[in-house]
Amino acid sequence: MALCASVNATPESDKLRAEKEDLPGKFIDEKEEMFANLQFNVRLLDPLLKLEKDIVKEGLDFGQNFVDLLFIILQAT
User: Fold this and answer.
1) Average pLDDT estimate for 12-26
2) Cβ neighbours around 57 below 10 Å, total
3) How do the domains of the chain map onto residue ranges?
4) DSSP SS3 for 12
5) Cα 36 to Cα 3, 13, 28, 62, distances in angstroms
6) Runs of H (alpha helix) within the chain
7) Are 20 and 65 in contact (CB under 8 A)?
8) Does residue 24 have a pLDDT over 60?
9) Is 5 helix (H, G, I), strand (E, B) or coil?
């Protein structure tokens, strides 16, 4: 899927768009291992929570990949 250009695009928002597009492959594949970890604690979610916050801040909080990210966070809580 091609990334759309934004009038207000910045290097940070471009990076977030790329990360958001990679969510299914990156976090969904890792969630089973993360949740199976007997020493799992909420601190393991810090990178996901930061990504979610950054995506919302940049106005990129739309689409199935963002919903998948929220679902992973929800499953862990």
Assistant:
1) 73
2) 12
3) 12-76
4) helix
5) 33, 32, 13, 29
6) 11-23, 29-36, 46-57, 64-76
7) yes
8) no
9) coil
pLDDT at 23: 66
Reading the block at residue 72, the tokens are 């992973």
- Span 28-42, pLDDT tens digits: 677 777 777 767 777
- Number of residues written out for the chain: 77
Between CA 11 and CA 61 the distance in angstroms is 17
Name the residue among 43, 48, 49, 54 with its Cα closest to residue 28.
48
Cα 35 to chain centroid, rounded: 16
Provide the pLDDT for residue 6.
52
How far is the C-alpha of 30 from the C-alpha of 21, rounded, in Å?
Answer: 16
- The answer to whether 21 and 4 are in contact (CB under 8 A) is no
- Residue for token digits 């919302």? 56
Structure tokens at 67: 């919903």
